[in-house]
Design goal:
It is a single chain. By secondary structure, the protein is mainly alpha-helical. The protein has six helices and three strands; from the N terminus they run αβαααββαα. It is elongated, with a radius of gyration of 34 Å.
């Protein structure tokens, strides 16, 4: 939060000085909370519900497999004395195989869920950036900053000082003399041709 306030203050101060010197163009700066936008918009709620349903489905699938293993173990324990050694061994193998499948299923479910979350976040972020840019232009904002991260979500072209900074950087930071007059890399010496043999 403090970083965001400092950033906003710094950006406001940085652009305010030339504005006073050149023209009375008023700066219009806004901040927003991306988490609130995600939680309170219809699209954000729809994505959250979709991810929740996906997670619930995977949990139910894994719970069913876990119960199947628990039932097999209970059956083996209860019928242990009446089962043949071969049958006991077969049931133990089944339990081991199903346990391995459950572990693999848990890992796959985590990966699938992460992919779903990542896709949803990327899609929502693209939509949010598009909306903020449209909002910034329509409402005449100079700068719009995300409250939590301090990242600039929208900036008017008029305050883009990148070219001026490049020029100033080149003016202030001169390449070292050694870099300017760096000698070309020495070529490897060509071996002398062997002297012709005398007859």
């Amino acid at each position: 939060m403090n970083r965001t306030v400092v950033l906003i203050a710094s950006l406001a101060a940085a652009v305010a000085v030339p504005a006073r010197a050149q023209a009375p163009a008023a700066l219009k700066i806004g901040i927003f909370d991306a988490n609130r936008v995600s939680e309170e918009t219809d699209e954000g709620k729809k994505i959250a519900a979709k991810l929740s349903a996906f997670g619930d489905k995977k949990k139910a699938e894994l719970a069913a497999k876990d119960k199947e293993i628990a039932d097999l173990r209970a059956q083996l324990d209860s019928q242990n004395l009446s089962l043949s050694p071969e049958k006991q061994q077969q049931m133990q193998k089944d339990i081991q195989r199903k346990t391995l499948e459950l572990q693999q299923g848990q890992e796959a479910a985590r990966n699938e869920f992460q992919i779903e979350v990542s896709d949803a976040q990327n899609k929502f972020q693209e939509q949010l950036i598009r909306v903020i840019n449209q909002f910034g232009r329509d409402e005449g904002f100079t700068l719009i900053i995300e409250r939590t991260t301090g990242g600039v979500a929208f900036a008017a072209e008029a305050i883009d000082v990148t070219t001026a900074i490049v020029d100033k950087f080149n003016e202030v930071v001169k390449p070292a003399a050694d870099d300017k007059a760096a000698p070309a890399a020495a070529k490897p010496a060509t071996p002398a041709a062997p002297a012709p043999k005398k007859p």
